[in-house]
Amino acid sequence: MNMLKTLTIVVISMVFIAGLPACEKKNSAEAVGEKIDETAEETGDILNEKIID
Fold this sequence. Notes:
Elements: H1 2-24, H2 28-52
């Protein structure tokens, strides 16, 4: 029973470790979302400059 428990923990750990590199990659939706955020922030900055001046 103890060996089965240890083996289960090792297998689960390996699955999590194998999945970590996949989390670091940006997918296209993430990249587009970041670009939209940047554009919105830049637009807000420009509007603030125009309103204040």
